[in-house]
């Protein structure tokens, strides 16, 4: 007996009854795939649902559901009193999908397909920095404790935007590329009161985290080859932003009083820009003295240079006087101030802000628009309410207490278990301390061994462009619970014994 013309079609459908996917969906997917790959050509008449059901040993309803779905999506045409046919007019783009299902991406030889010089620069940069993918819970630096974040309040505020906001919130608006106005106003108020920043809401540009602020500043202010003072040691995110703009980085040493302005002047008197973290130098933790601030502002004005002030974690100060922002001392519009919600809220929120001198605002707004139009309004609106309803300052106060406790536990535990073997830096702010290693020890080797003991410290030398004068480990305390800190120090003692 010759095989039925439908035997081929039945052979294309393999049902797996152990699978969680419903049978009707398995039939749908098999027929769809066969149509897209043209194993079932257009115009082909399908067997009756009764025949299909009998052959596949499923109920007729199961087959009917699959056929209906394919008809709704335009793969099949049901002609009353005639039968079900593979559609004649399969849209072009669906057939293209079929090609990609069948074929792997072709291999293109690399030669003769150059990126732009800018593209090459961007592609090379991320591999040049240590991205620290280590996810161990003990001592990650710069990471807030997400268990302590009020997600319920945040979820309520996000939901509220979806339920109650006018539809304009869900459209892009070129006039709002600088950000959602109530959030710009709330940030300007917060910065004036808490950071002594001199600004009004019109100077605020909302960005997707400090990183975008650094990228924008670098690309708006730097031409390839321009010299930029980089704090040495310094923040890798800033380093890659300036490198992406083609800057020549000039490492300028950092001392007890922050950036050494005299050294910078000697190394590169006509630099175009300086990157600095005056409130809490990253990663050493020093505060820039008033004298150094005034010297820096004075040099910048005379040299016609820009100062990028990264005020990334000033909310966390555990003792001493709060230090106002450098921007508040600037009478010449030389400072671009950058702040972030990554440390108080959560890092993947991707929301930060810049304070731009008034004459540059329009230019930065235009660039912000070109890069990605604007930050999502729903998140911005929820953030504005998080601030105006008082949750922001309440959360900062709670985290300040929590992190101060953890810092104290870290200090006490290091003192008790490690004593002189790992003296800690004295910084009274931020979310990490430096544990100083004996000179001659390679902190990168210690860091690698520590990771194998489930300890997430970073090597201080990774933050230097030149040689690191004193090896050390960055030890974050904010995201580690007290018992994790204690256990981590015990394991670190074993690592240091080995070193
Ligand atoms: C010095 C410094 N600036 C900025 C940031 C925050 O960056 P973002 O706002 O892009 O998350 C960090 C985070 O680790 C940092 O250490």
Tell me what the structure shows.
This protein is α/β, with parallel strands linked by helices and 499 residues long. It folds into three domains: 7-102, Winged helix-like DNA-binding domain superfamily/Winged helix DNA-binding domain (Arc Repressor Mutant, subunit A, Orthogonal Bundle); 148-391, Type I PLP-dependent aspartate aminotransferase-like (Major domain) (Aspartate Aminotransferase, domain 2, 3-Layer(aba) Sandwich); 394-498, Aspartate Aminotransferase, domain 1 (Alpha-Beta Complex). It has helices spanning 7-11, 23-36, 49-56, 60-72, 92-102, 117-125, 151-164, 181-195, 209-221, 236-244, 261-267, 290-303, 361-372, 377-388, 391-417, 443-452, 482-498, and strands at residues 76-79, 83-86, 204-207, 227-232, 248-255, 258-259, 273-276, 306-310, 335-340, 352-355, 432-436, 458-459, 472-476. The strands form three sheets. An eight-stranded mixed β-sheet has the order 3-10-9-8-7-4-5-6, with helices on both faces. A three-stranded antiparallel β-sheet has the order 11-13-12, with helices on one face. The protein has a two-stranded antiparallel sheet with strand order 1-2. Helix 10 (236-244) links the parallel strand 4 and strand 5 (248-255). It has 17 helices and 13 strands. The site of pyridoxal-5'-phosphate (PLP) has 14 residues, from helix 9. Pyridoxal-5'-phosphate (PLP) is lined by residues 142, 209-211, 235, 237, 277, 282, 310, 312, 340, 342, 347, 352.
